Amino acid sequence: MLIFAFLTVASWGVYGVFLHKGQMGMADPNVGRYKAFLYVGIAYVFIAVLAPLVMLRLYGKHGDTNFFSYPSLGWQWSLIAGMVGAIGAFGVLLAFGAAPGATPPARAAYVPVVMSIIFAGAPIVNAFVSMFMTHGPEGSRFEIKPQFWLGIACAALGGSLVALYKPEPVKEKTPPATEQPAKH
After folding, report:
1. DSSP state, 68?
2. In this structure, are 123 and 89 located in the same domain?
3. Residues 91 and 115 both lie in one domain
4. How many Cβ atoms are within 10 Å of 23's Cβ, its own excluded?
5. Each residue of 43-69: pLDDT tens digit?
6. Based on the structure, what is the number of domains in the chain?
7. Does 182 fall in a domain?
8. Torsion angle of alpha carbons 142, 147, 153, 159, nearest 10°?
9. Distances (CA, A) of 155 to 14, 69, 107, 127, 168
10. Fewer beta carbons within 10 angstroms: which end of the chain, N or C?
């Protein structure tokens, strides 16, 4: 399990940087981010459609690739999950485009800020949504330990610190002019 979790950490850890590179590589300041997102969609077709089909053919039983036989509750929630995932990915691009700065390098400095806000905020949202959607029967109460609240505070604090103290481009120092002795 851990290896796949770290695979996701690595993939999502480079996602924002790679997406920004793609956006800048489109060389279109007005709609380059949308062009880049189009290719994200193409990549999803390869990874999110073709890979499961191969796995179903290799490891599933006869009929597992008949989409019309899937239980409606399963495919409906899966479709919703895909839509909120795609909306989130699109939100990354919109955040990159809304970053302050008049030049691409100035906006690029906000890529780690955007990603840190996302990765600090997403676990907080996940904790509350999971708590209310997937745990306990209707009307059950939850025992929330102080460590939970501490974790929420740490995630929020971590995202805030990264946003406040984002990496800044290094300003090149010009060496002081040295006086040359006059030649006679």
Report:
1. G
2. no
3. no
4. 25
5. 999 999 999 999 999 999 888 888 888
6. 2
7. no
8. -110
9. 20, 41, 24, 12, 22
10. C
